[in-house]
Amino acid sequence: MAYEKKEQLYEGKAKKVYATQDPNVVIVSYKDDATAFNGLKKGTITGKGAINNRMTNNLMRRLEAKGVPTHLVEELSDRETAVKKVSIVPLEVIIRNLSAGSFAKRYGVEEGIVFDAPTIEFSYKNDDLGDPLINTYHALALKLATAEEIALIKNYAFTVNELLKGFMKEIGIDLVDFKLEFGRTADGQIVLADEISPDTCRLWDEKTHEKLDKDRFRRDLGGAEEAYEEVMRRLTGVE
Ligand code: TMP
Ligand code: ASP
């Protein structure tokens, strides 16, 4: 089916969303804009939009094949993809395999400690509040999701971790941590939504431990463009 791009429904920090002629399908358009610290730091990572679009679709296709439902419908171009229209569950789901970022800071530990088992945490997706950490009791009290939905989301998130860890290991990358978002389709199904990219994952080269993700931008390390290209090059090399 040829999806026609209609009016813009939403503009986020890294993507725009457009309506189509199908009420159950929207088009996501990935931007090169990069932000960090809840939008306080702004910049551009040239070529990022196209890479994140293609990388997300590559990974979501492979997750689907392993039984994880996603919002993916069809890649339309370098930067644009048709996805199922969902209402996003306002919980950012973060899985960690090694200490880094806010975990290292919050608990006063070094980065790079390998955990015996992965951890999960939720943030309340609310820019005005700065995406505060939230527990499942509070999420239920705020009616952000039902207990059944939260149980399903946790299950999917740990499954995605095992699968993604494997995909990354094949290309010499350690999956340190990542953030997922889930959505509800029109018929109430929970599906993996948003993106899976170097914007939303920490990816370290397994040998050199070089950072191949958005921390290069967040921490002014330089070479963000090259890092994103490197991950994409390795991923498409094994397809
Ligand atoms: P954190 O260590 O800053 O909490 O980040 C954990 C993971 O979540 C990391 O892979 C980056 C990702 N992330 C996002 O995708 N969006 C965000 O807004 C934040 C804060 C983190
Ligand atoms: N995307 C988030 C923002 O701008 C934060 C991050 O990825 O570090 O605020």
UniProtKB/TrEMBL annotation:
Residues 8-234 form the SAICAR synthetase/ADE2 N-terminal domain. Its EC number is 6.3.2.6. GO terms for molecular function: ATP binding; phosphoribosylaminoimidazolesuccinocarboxamide synthase activity. It comes from the Bacteria. Keywords: ATP-binding, Ligase, Nucleotide-binding, Purine biosynthesis. InterPro entries: SAICAR_synt/ADE2_N, SAICAR_synt_PurC, SAICAR_synth, SAICAR_synthetase, SAICAR_synthetase_CS. Pfam families: SAICAR_synt. One of its GO terms (biological process) is cobalamin biosynthetic process. It catalyses: 5-amino-1-(5-phospho-D-ribosyl)imidazole-4-carboxylate + L-aspartate + ATP = (2S)-2-[5-amino-1-(5-phospho-beta-D-ribosyl)imidazole-4-carboxamido]succinate + ADP + phosphate + 2 H(+). Pathway: Purine metabolism; IMP biosynthesis via de novo pathway; 5-amino-1-(5-phospho-D-ribosyl)imidazole-4-carboxamide from 5-amino-1-(5-phospho-D-ribosyl)imidazole-4-carboxylate: step 1/2. Belongs to the SAICAR synthetase family. PANTHER family: MULTIFUNCTIONAL PROTEIN ADE2 (PTHR43599), SI:DKEY-6E2.2 (PTHR43599:SF3). This is Phosphoribosylaminoimidazole-succinocarboxamide synthase. It comes from Lawsonibacter hominis.
